[in-house]
Amino acid sequence: MHSLLELSFTELKASFEQSITKVKLIFHIREFRNLRGFVSIKALDLLHSELQRVKDVGDEEMLCGCVLRRTHGLPCAHELACLRPGTTISL
Q: Is 0.90 surpassed by the pTM of this model?
């Protein structure tokens, strides 16, 4: 049982290390400059989806629902809409 847990932990650690060092091309946008290499691919994926939602939601909090903020503590679509052009998402 112990060796099985060690193996699982090793695989999880390797997966996390890989997610930090290998970044998808879609994450090479200005907004993610401060985040690349510091947060997981999953977090970048979630933020990328929220950036896509900005087109539909804009800065309307009621339309946004703020689900990502409440569930993951990450900026939601209406907060991302308030970023000035050229601004990066801070860590």
A: no
